[in-house]
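[#protein-structures] MJ: dropping FAD-dependent oxidoreductase here for a structure pass
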Amino acid sequence: MSQARPVTPVRSGAVARYAAETDVLIVGFGCAGAAAAFEAASAGADVLVLERAGGPGGSSALSGGELCLGGGTEVQKACGFEDGPDEMFGYLQAALGPHTDDEKLRLYCEESVAHFQWFVDRGLTFEPTLWDAPTWMPTTRDGLMWLGENAWPYNEIARPAPRGHRCATEAFGGWLVMEKLVAAAGAAGAVTHADTLVTALIVDDDDRVVGVTARRHGEDLAYRARKGVVLTTGGFADNEEMLADHAPQLLAHGRVSDGLDDGSGIRMAAALGAATRRMGVVELALTVLPGLAVRGVVVNAHGQRFVNEDVYPGLLSTAAVLTQPAPYWVIVDEEGYESVPERERWGVVPRFVSETLGELEGELGMPPGALESTVGAYNTYAARGQDPYFHKDAWWLRPLKGPFAAVDPRAGFRQGGRPGAGAGTGAAGFTLGGLRTTVDGVVLDVSGAVLAGLFAAGRAASGIHGEGYVSGTSLGDGTFFGRRAGAAAAAEGRTRPSSGGSAS
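AK: finished. structure tokens for FAD-dependent oxidoreductase:
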């Protein structure tokens, strides 16, 4: 279990000397920190990034690398899709909801094309081709993928257009996104101190945040920020105490993180009275293969369907883990299994195979007749090209014929599984709640007032999400609002003289 360190703010008058002074001090060097560092340095500010690990990257570098972008990017146009900010907003408001932060989401959608170009300008390339099949992660260099926009009910809410943008690499690409952003931040003038664990915020007599205390190579240090401190420290998926308090549904599952998402930035700001938002919301992903799921049915422990299998797999996963009795099974027939290209099966093989549904439900411990009833109803309507219960697209509808197989998501992928998957449940996730901020990353206190000198972005902050999630909205949200936080911190008009200490 994570051990909570004291995070009581330190008064600047108690600081004897500062190890370094800078205009903008950024805590954490994942995607949000890199974006903030680049924008602040590009605005002419002196920028220092403090990273607790041995180098930059964090959980962002371990991610799939998808970027949820739209509104009419060049890649969308090259693939023959029309999109606009309103259509993008309509889809994301539904998929990330309920209770999205509509002000942030609207801004994100309106400036998405420009944000796409920002990535291109930082050196990322996107192939003008579409991966047109359900998946967590394409096994090709295709630059565009669906994020469930073409599944019910989202295809009735907004005109479908794929918005998952992928930089030119096969499989996981978070490392490449971070490589380009870290290089850009360094080229803009940002300096990094690695192996530096920030322990508390420093405030002056007016309660303005003016720096941080830290520990580096066994030495206690203080760093001063003349303009602002930007917290980009990640979420709290690795803090058992915080999970127990705010998001206990994640405790039993694996974690998608680099192991250092301990909520330190959230706790430091909360010690100053910072407000938080959506602390109980998590993303959960089952190690279920979307390509198999759409070709069959997904059922709960009672043999009942509960979702249209062509929906974004993260939404399917959350619906299963948070609302349905476990275990969950993908029921597929031989034709469906064999129609998935071997490379896209990721080594997954069925755990149970039976000639009849009655035999299969017995092996799975389901109520007698439950699976037969579910598949029987499914087959009746599939033969007509219909799914009146859950509205799966007719493209995937086909009566299932024996022999039948049950694929257990708890078995995981034999190769290339999602980071952190496991814990014996077949599900892994991360937190989505965090500090309440303005669209410019300014941290607000519990009364809605500004905490002067303090900014936050990425998973340390509550971004565009409500109670839902789709791939690419962490890297997209983190970089977009990281950029705004860095720029806002650099634009702080008040530059104060040293208080209670001198730089070494």
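MJ: nice. Residues 473-490 form the longest helix (18 residues).
AK: one more thing. The chain has 16 helices and 24 strands.
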